TrEMBL record:
Protein name: AraC family transcriptional regulator, L-rhamnose operon regulatory protein RhaS
Domain HTH araC/xylS-type, chain residue ranges per copy: 245-344
PANTHER family according to UniProt: ARAC-FAMILY TRANSCRIPTIONAL REGULATOR (PTHR43280), ARAC-TYPE DNA-BINDING DOMAIN-CONTAINING PROTEIN (PTHR43280:SF17)
Keyword Cell cycle assigned: no
Organism of this sequence: Parapedobacter koreensis
Amino acid sequence: MKAVNMDYLPNHQSKPYTYFDRGKIYYSDTCLPLNEAWKDEKIRLEAWARPPYPGSVALPDDVLAGLSTIGFWDATLGQDWGLDWHRNEGIEITFLETGGLSFAVDNKIHQLIADELTITRPWQVHKLGSPNIGVGRLYWIILDVNVRHPHQEWIWPHWLMLTKPDMEELTRMLRQNEQPVWKANLEIRKCFQRIGQLVMSGDVASNESWMIISINELLLHLLKFFREGEVTFDENLTKQTRTVSLFIDHLENTFAEPWTLEMMAEQCSLGVTRFVHYFKQIKNQPPMHYLTALRLNAASYHLKNHMEMPIHQIGYECGFTSGQYFSTVFKQKFGCSPQAYRNQFKEQ
């Protein structure tokens, strides 16, 4: 059985979260360490951004709708910060022009070098730095395509000018392939450099059209790059079963949350009936049965290994709000009460 770190168990009264994984709750990335480093003049930051992302220029509501942030940082000295595990509300493309950077995604660490490109989707948890970032210049763009789960249809910002067939092809390439790191070509490098120059101007009104052209050019070069490369595609990456499978992985670390069936389905952006259907396909049991089993397994672990913890506290922190219900379902599974179960290990 996988041990649960009690330090990571969420508080039942915690505020609504955006994402969750690895026993932790993730909110939409605010880049707070980056913002603080910029304010302390440890790093150069040039960005057009919408809150909560930091930026040298705030984007007006009626300009470049769907663009969350675009810009770069330039670190010439060693840093004492990194961007811990997070997800973004959009597809993020970054380009490392100079230097090196530790980039982790989906439990795999990549040591980025100059001229490498990263692509992460809204459901991919990732971090920058190990634990701190290195020297170098990193460009980025985050575009909100109105999805949070793999099975949802992407809706790109209206100002993108690719033809419908080109946009559909690029979308398919980004949805059905999740390779996170690529070696960029000269055209992509030049696109990010031009974007950087526009951002540095600080004049959104005069350069909005140029920025639109530059972003469209970047996406076209990305499409060409994929067409000319060896890209493999997997339609299963976009199916509803994958969304539910990802949720199940997360549930194994967030079982202490006060989940209801409706909340689970909503988290996956699915109706309850369809959610239950896919859940049973994957786990061969209803969601609430599986949730209860996760909670009971965690409780049994802590009853055995944390003798100092009161039984009612273990039940509560494993997701049981009623002590009586905890005792009832525990006895059904293990054949004895929580206290009797603990006593077996006291005698050893």
